[in-house]
Target: Protein ABHD11
Amino acid sequence: MARSLRNRNAVHLLTRVLNSVSPCSVTSMRSLQTLAYEEVRAPPTDKPYTSTAFVLHGLLGSGRNWRSFSRTLASSLSDSSPPSEWRMVLVDLRNHGKSAELEGFDPPHDMYNAAKDLANLVESRGWEWPDVVMGHSMGGKVALQFSESCARGDYGESAALPKQLWVLDSVPGEAKREGSDGEVEKVLETLQKLPSSFPSRKWLVNHMLELGFSKSLSDWIGSNLKRSGDQETWAFNLDGAVQMFNSYRETSYWSLLEKPPKGMEISVVRAEKSDRWDPETTQRLESLSSRGEDESRGKFSLHLLPDSGHWVHVDNPKGLLEIVAPRIHSFSF
Model:
């Protein structure tokens, strides 16, 4: 038994070392029959990585949205004392980014299957399970579902819970329509009425402005295009993304926050200027955060990111780094 365990550990170590070698800080995009992804490392990248974090984007985004922040986070952890070498895996969720170009992601397009895609990626690549999973907006709920499914045994006995889960400006319960301006719904409804291709990014941005959307939102929508011949087309599968948004809105993970699995810490970051939060939800999170420790469950913490709206990695990346990096570094991986 001891020899078998040593052999398995040796195989895991060899796999980790081989997978850690890459010629630059951002490797080329992998387009597999599982999710597309890219890896970000702190230079020099010839060092074997010791830990892995999955980074999950939000609705209509892609992994590349988080490239700059992930590189900075990896460098911060590498420069800390003692140093730790991290591999950041920036995933394109189903119906988004490069994954939207791949087949094999059958409906329903919901949080459960989006999380299962992550497990399939780990298993198909022969990786160890991620130490940290960080998700923004819709990606935050995919991260919560991934942890819930791991704890429930949905991914088999070999699956290991992440030690830390970061939920970035993502409401953990059902998204309430009351008190909301319905901006996301308006955007999705508008996009569904548009043609599938456009003469240019500038044309799309101007069209969104004419419809009354803000410049920042219009520019962001325009950034999610790809070239197709002499036209621009969406870099996501719009119908599938709409289904994912509906699942995001209808799914609740309060029970997971109330009793995190033992050995795991769930950290929620609320952006100070975000319009996603209502007083009832904030108060409930603050109450969970103020509880005393209980050995029968994992930990929960709540963090306020000042001077930031919903786009936390753009509005205040330095503040976000100051919240995330020390807590990851202080954890035993």
In short: Residues 2-20 form the longest helix (19 residues). The chain has two domains: 37-174+241-330, 183-236.
